[in-house]
Amino acid sequence: QQQVKQSPQSLIVQKGGISIINCAYENTAFDYFPWYQQFPGKGPALLIAIRPDVSEKKEGRFTISFNKSAKQFSLHIMDSQPGDSATYFCAAVYSSYKLIFGSGTRLLVRP
Amino acid sequence: EAGVAQSPRYKIIEKRQSVAFWCNPISGHATLYWYQQILGQGPKLLIQFQNNGVVDDSQLPKDRFSAERLKGVDSTLKIQPAKLEDSAVYLCASSSGQGRYEQYFGPGTRLTVT
User: For residue A14, what are the contacts with CB-CB under 8 A and spacing of at least 6?
Assistant: First the structure.
């Protein structure tokens, strides 16, 4: 099934806190899982990505945790900052490098 | 390296009118995508090009939408005639396509159909 389910729809975190966004999928043919960050009026920008043979990837304050058996993956933003306030999309790549996106999470980081 | 360019940034038209969007991908990127992003939703793929050939247009409403990529570089997406439900942001993305999964998005064109 070509679908990626994302939660929560919105998230409010205090500055310095940890933001966690979760995604789940069904199609085991997905072979790459990127996260995109989108600011108002801008296109999505690739933030971090992981392959299904890796359980965790960390880049700065951003970490992806991947559970292949559960078909779930999540984005953790450590030490969240007001500048991180944006909409985050999980996605999955399937045949011929096509992307399918989750429904998005609007993150607000309060000062 | 210049990013993906799109124009216009905004367009307001009445229903049943036609509209065209233009995209210039990152230099050297063989693969080009058009997405539709309805407010509050994730982008949805409309069409994928590899050079100047169509790889996948299964989600393109072909009765009113058309797209072309002449010479394997720039691309245009056209809607004729537009419907109210076509109001959305139309995003163009490109990828090197050489075994690389990363897609780079342009700023999008916000279309309002009244």
Answer: A80, A109, A110
Task: Give the end-to-end CA distance of chain A in Å, rounded to a whole number.
Answer: 40
The helix or strand, by DSSP H or E, that contains position B40, with its residue range, turns out to be: none
Residue B100 and residue A40 in contact, taking contact as beta carbons nearer than 8 Å: no
Chain A residues touching B56 at Cβ < 8 A? 96, 98
Q: Strand A86-94 to strand A33-38: parallel, antiparallel, or no bridges (unpaired)?
A: antiparallel
Write the DSSP symbol of residue B111. Answer: E
The Cα–Cα gap between B55 and A2 comes to: 17
Q: Which two tokens stand for residue B90?
A: 């139309």
Q: Please, what sign has the CA dihedral across residues B89, B95, B100, B102?
A: negative
> What's the rounded Cα separation, in Å, for the pair A38 and A36?
7
CB A31 within 8 A of CB A94: yes
**Cα B68-B103-A11 angle, rounded to 5 deg:** 120
Closest CA to A38 of B48, B93, B113, B27: B93
Q: What are phi and psi of A97, to 5 degrees?
A: 65, 30
Q: How far is B85 from chain A (nearest CA, A)?
A: 18
The reported pLDDT for the residue numbered A27 is 86
Q: Is A99 within 8 Å of B91 when comparing Cβ atoms?
A: no
For residue range B65-110, what is the model confidence (pLDDT) as tens digits? 999 998 889 999 999 999 999 999 999 999 987 667 889 999 999 9
Residues on chain B touching A91 (C-beta within 8 angstroms): 42
